[in-house]
Structures are given as structure tokens and as C-alpha cells.
């Protein structure tokens, strides 16, 4: 069935009437989303008191989707956000949920990703990397895994947020990396996905976290990747969106958590394949990072962040070469545009739910991932057939390991390489 006919059917089921015009139903309502997000940065009502310990997250959930929409913030507003996050930074390193609150790895990730997205010298240099490193070492358990805060819980989120931040600001070293990969591998379940902690249930949020952390650590071979790929691929439902775990409802935010996990495995498979071909003419690969977009080539020195492709084994590579796209990228865009958008601006979990900043951030991140998912060459733009609706729906590409806009990642990479 043609995509337009299928979209019209879904629209009829959801809204009980035929759509007015094709363009309205498939359009990304940019202006409304920009208005909702920028308004939130300037004013949040009393209902947001419950999120008092998540204020750096609120910054990230608004600043990042605005960057995806290529919306430039006022200089004053950017400076206010940088000043506010500086007040959340603990004197002994890391960021708390608000000024004076205990430092926490999740809010540290949100603060650092926000500052990288703002991308100014002022924003990037406000991060105290020496103390951040000490904070991270303090969060490390003797098993190698990380806890979220002093005396806090150990889980896969903590491992991902620590490794992502350390990698982004260029403080990742052997000491921080030791033992993390083994902990994450212990969280992969019999289903194939990754759970929050050993012996728990596989979930899309943790699957993204575990996979991205292992790729950053160059230890993805510690996972049973074919099994992980099967699990994620089967999480896309007949509604076209993704569910977070088996037998649960689809939800717009998993467009990113599951969609990016698939995008990462697809890139990994592609890189392994390319490197295997290259390995006939030279021994060792190099690259900026396993899933970054820089071109990889041959050097005699092994880069610390390059993937050792031989580790993945012949069976995995054979099988990977036989599989096509691992998810239906147009169907996912259909779910986001038709079911997750709110007419007044902002995005949501599913029809019947309210919009919120978290879902706006992760639905738009998932939309970007799905628009660029069929690309093999990172220097060009997606073909129109991979962007559902008008081509003006196209968002900025992200770096799928960190979930920051790719250009912003490159600026931060340059900045922190010189530190
Ligand atoms: C970087 C970082 C902090 C990542 C967090 C990743 C993430 C989203 C984890 C999911 C946590 C979880 C078990 C949700 C289940 O909620 P639910 O039972 O309401 O939803 P469900 O029915 O869809 O499973
Ligand atoms: Zn959700």
C-alpha cells in the first residue's frame, strides 16, 4: 500500500475523519514547537515544582530540540542558561538538580549536553573538567560500575551518563573505563535487550544506554549483538512507533531510545564491514570514534577509541551482511508526525496524553535519527524518499552516541581536544 494511503487510513482511525490536506497531516509543526520550547525556557508555572531536582534536564529537553529545529537562541538567554548551570555545578565537581543540590550523574549529563549544545566558549569553558573527573572517580564502585550519586544506586544509566560525559569532554581514561563494560554485559537479558541492572527486565532506555556506553568504550563485542538486534527490531509495533519493552504500549520517546539503538547497530555493522575490507590492505583501523562520522583510515598505531573489528567474529559479520534496514524509518516518522505532535506545539507519548518537554526532546531526536537512518555517507543530505512529508521537515542530524546535534559535537570535540 502506498505510504499516503496508509497515512490517511491511520489518520481516519485516530481522528475519525479524513485529513484536510496531505501537507497539513504530514507537516512538522516547527513554529508551534519552537514557541512551546522557547516559552518554557523563559517561564514554567507552579506545576513544575515537582521537577525542582531536574532543572538541568529541563534545560536539555528544551535547548536540544530547539537546536534540532535549527533555532538560534538569544545571546542573553544563552548566557542566563550558562550562568544557571554554573550555579548547579558542585564545588567538588559534577552538577546537581539545582543550585546547592547534591551532584548527580544524570543531571551532570543533562548540564554538559546543554552546554555543548549552546557551544559558545563561555559555555564550554564553564565546565570544571578536573573536578568533574574527581567526581566521576568518586562515583565509581569497586566492581567498576558507576553509582548515580554519593551513596546512590548503581545502574546502566549511571555507566552511560558517566562514560558519555567523560568522552565528550575528553577526560575518559583507563581508570574511569575499568570494569564498566563487564557490568553492562551482565545486564543483557535472555531477550537480547539490556536491563537497568543485572537480572532485571530488558528496556529500550537501558538498551540505548548500555550499547552507546560499550561503543564509546570500544567493548561492544561484549554483547550478544545478533540477539540485541533481534530484540530491538521487534519492538517496532503495528502502530509504527516503538515500545520500550515486550508487551507494553508504544510511546513517542522510544523513537529515540530504540531508534538510536538501531541506528548505532546499523553503523557498527557498516563500519565492521568496511574495516574488514580495509584490513586486507592494512592491519589496524583508526577513527574519531566507533560511530562518529569522521572517515576512518589505516594507521600503524591503534587509536584508543577505534574499534577492533576482528573481535566481532565471522558469524556476526556474515549475518550482518545479509540483513537489510533494521527498522521502518518512514513508519516511525509517521507515528511521530501523526500521533505524537500536539497542534499547539510540543510532542507527546501518544494520542490522549499531554505534551511535555521530555517527549518533545526525544520524539524530535527520534525523528532526526529516522530521517538520517538510511544514509551511508555522512557528508550528504537524506534523499527525499527518506523524509516523510515536505522536505522542510528535515531536522539537524545528531551524534547518536551522545544525542547532541552533530555540528555542536564537532565544535566541542575541537574545543576539548585542545584542553
Ligand atoms: C540517559 C538516561 C538518564 C536514560 C534513561 C533511559 C530510560 C528512558 C530508561 C527507562 C526507565 C524505565 C524502566 C521506564 C519504564 O517506564 P514505564 O513503565 O512508565 O514505561 P513503559 O511501559 O514504556 O516501560
Ligand atoms: Zn515516554
From TrEMBL:
Source organism superkingdom: Eukaryota
Keyword tRNA processing among record annotations: no
Alphabetically ordered keywords of this record: Metal-binding, Prenyltransferase, Repeat, Transferase, Zinc
Recorded coiled-coil stretches: none
GO CC annotation, single: protein farnesyltransferase complex
Pfam families xrefs: Prenyltrans
Needed co-factor(s): Zn(2+)
Family annotation (InterPro entries): FTB, PGGT1B-like, Prenyltrans, Terpenoid_cyclase/PrenylTrfase
Co-factor remark: Binds 1 zinc ion per subunit.
E.C. number: 2.5.1.58
Domain Prenyltransferase alpha-alpha toroid, chain residue ranges per copy: 29-404
Principal EC category: transferase
Catalysed reaction, written as an equation: L-cysteinyl-[protein] + (2E,6E)-farnesyl diphosphate = S-(2E,6E)-farnesyl-L-cysteinyl-[protein] + diphosphate
Gene Ontology molecular functions: protein farnesyltransferase activity; zinc ion binding
One example of a Gene Ontology biological process annotation: prenylation
PANTHER family to which the protein is assigned, alphabetical: GERANYLGERANYL TRANSFERASE TYPE BETA SUBUNIT, PROTEIN FARNESYLTRANSFERASE SUBUNIT BETA
Biological role: Catalyzes the transfer of a farnesyl moiety from farnesyl diphosphate to a cysteine at the fourth position from the C-terminus of several proteins. The beta subunit is responsible for peptide-binding.
Subunit structure: Heterodimer of FTA and FTB.
Sequence similarity: Belongs to the protein prenyltransferase subunit beta family.
Protein name per the record: Protein farnesyltransferase subunit beta
Amino acid at each position: 500500500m502506498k505510504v499516503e494511503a496508509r497515512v490517511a487510513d491511520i489518520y481516519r482511525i485516530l481522528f475519525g475523519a479524513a485529513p484536510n490536506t496531505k501537507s497539513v497531516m504530514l507537516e512538522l509543526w516547527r513554529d508551534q514547537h519552537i514557541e512551546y520550547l522557547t516559552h518554557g525556557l523563559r517561564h514554567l508555572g507552579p506545576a513544575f515544582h515537582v521537577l525542582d531536582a531536574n532543572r538541568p534536564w529541563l534545560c536539555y529537553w528544551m535547548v536540544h530540540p530547539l537546536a534540532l529545529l535549527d533555532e538560534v537562541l538569544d545571546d542573553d538567554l544563552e548566557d542566563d542558561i550558562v550562568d544557571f548551570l554554573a550555579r548547579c555545578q558542585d564545588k567538588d565537581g559534577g552538577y546537581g538538580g539545582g543550585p546547592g543540590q547534591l551532584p548527580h550523574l544524570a543531571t551532570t549529563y543533562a548540564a554538559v549536553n546543554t552546554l555543548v549544545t549552546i557551544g559558545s566558549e563561555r559555555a564550554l569553558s564553564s565546565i570544571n573538567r578536573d573536578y568533574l573527573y574527581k567526581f566521576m572517580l568518586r562515583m565509581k564502585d569497586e566492581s567498576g560500575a558507576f553509582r548515580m550519586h554519593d551513596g546512590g544506586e548503581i545502574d546502566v544509566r549511571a555507566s552511560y551518563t558517566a562514560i558519555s560525559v567523560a568522552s565528550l569532554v575528553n577526560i575518559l581514561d583507563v581508570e574511569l573505563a575499568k570494569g564498566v563494560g563487564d557490568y553492562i554485559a551482565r545486564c543483557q537479558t535472555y531477550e537480547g535487550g539490556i536491563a537497568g541492572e543485572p537480572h532485571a527486565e530488558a528496556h529500550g532506555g537501558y538498551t540505548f544506554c548500555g550499547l552507546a556506553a560499550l561503543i564509546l568504550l570500544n567493548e561492544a563485542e561484549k554483547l550478544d549483538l545478533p540477539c540485541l538486534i533481534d530484540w530491538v527490531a521487534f519492538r517496532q509495533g503495528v502502530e509504527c512507533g516503538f515500545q520500550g519493552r515486550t508487551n507494553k504500549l508504544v510511546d513517542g520517546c522510544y523513537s529515540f531510545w530504540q531508534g538510536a539503538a538501531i541506528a548505532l547497530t546499523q553503523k557498527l555493522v557498516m563500519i565492521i564491514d568496511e574495516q574488514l575490507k580495509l584490513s586486507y590492505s592494512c592491519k589496524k583501523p583508526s577513527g574519531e570514534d566507533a560511530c562518529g562520522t569522521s572517515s576512518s583510515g589505516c594507521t600503524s598505531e591503534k587509536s584508543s577509541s577505534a574499534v577492533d573489528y576482528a573481535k566481532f567474529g565471522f558469524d556476526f559479520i556474515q549475518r550482518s551482511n545479509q540483513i537489510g534496514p533494521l527498522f521502518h524509518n518512514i513508519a516511525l516518522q509517521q507515528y511521530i508526525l501523526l500521533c505524537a505532535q500536539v497542534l499547539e506545539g510540543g510532542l507527546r507519548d501518544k494520542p490522549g496524553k499531554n505534551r511535555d518537554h521530555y517527549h518533545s526532546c526525544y520524539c524530535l531526536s527520534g525523528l532526526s535519527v529516522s530521517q538520517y537512518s538510511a544514509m551511508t555517507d555522512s557528508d550528504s543530505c537524506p534523499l527525499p524518499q527518506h523524509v516523510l512529508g515536505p522536505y522542510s521537515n528535515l531536522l539537524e542530524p545528531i551524534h547518536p552516541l551522545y544525542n547532541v546535534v552533530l555540528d555542536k559535537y564537532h565544535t566541542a570535540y575541537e574545543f576539548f581536544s585542545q584542553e
